[in-house]
Design goal:
By secondary structure, the protein is an alpha+beta fold. It is built from five helices and five strands, in the order βαααββαββα. It has a five-stranded antiparallel β-sheet. The chain is elongated and about 50 Å long.
Length: 166
């Protein structure tokens, strides 16, 4: 299991020991896309949904999810997050881009918290709108950036698909 830090030499699962690591400022940014019918996007943007403001409910769900990541992902360390921000914006005429930025001063990073925030916000949009659009898809949930810690900085290069939408 060389290279996979969540397994010991015998292949047993383990939580990585971060006890001797230094506390550093860490940031992670993730994003994903919820694709839908143009009429569904218009309903959301006009705040015309019977269930309420879809984007604000999704934002709150994403923030709450980031704070619960260690309860959802078995080997994640519980972290006292310093900041969780979610941006939800239209992408073309048939999608919403969900972007989460999470910050902490800790011994381990917040990539999973950012990815969890995006995932749950996207699922919340789906849940609130499934009655009007069961064909929605959740796409391209991915880490875009992380800073801090021993491994340094990671920034995803803009893909062809995102270049036209930014």
């Amino acid at each position: 299991m060389a290279g996979l830090s969540h397994f010991d030499e015998q292949g047993a699962s383990r939580m990585v020991d971060v006890g001797s690591k230094a506390v550093t400022d860490r940031l992670a940014r993730a994003r994903g896309i919820v694709r839908m019918q143009p009429s569904t996007l218009q309903l959301i943007l006009q705040r015309g949904h019977d269930k309420g403001d879809v984007l604000e409910v999704a934002r709150l769900a994403g923030i709450m999810a980031a704070k619960q990541t260690a309860d959802l992902i078995p080997l994640c360390h519980p972290l006292a997050l310093d900041s969780v921000q979610l941006e939800l914006r239209p992408l073309g005429d048939d999608a919403i881009e969900v972007e989460a930025t999470v910050q902490v001063a800790a011994k381990t990073g917040v990539e999973m918290e950012a990815l969890t925030a995006v995932s749950v916000a996207a699922l919340t949009i789906y849940d609130m709108c499934k009655a009007v659009d069961r064909g929605m898809t959740i796409e391209q949930i991915q880490l875009e950036e992380k800073t801090g810690g021993k491994s340094g900085t990671f920034r995803r290069q803009a893909s062809r698909q995102h270049k036209g939408s930014e």
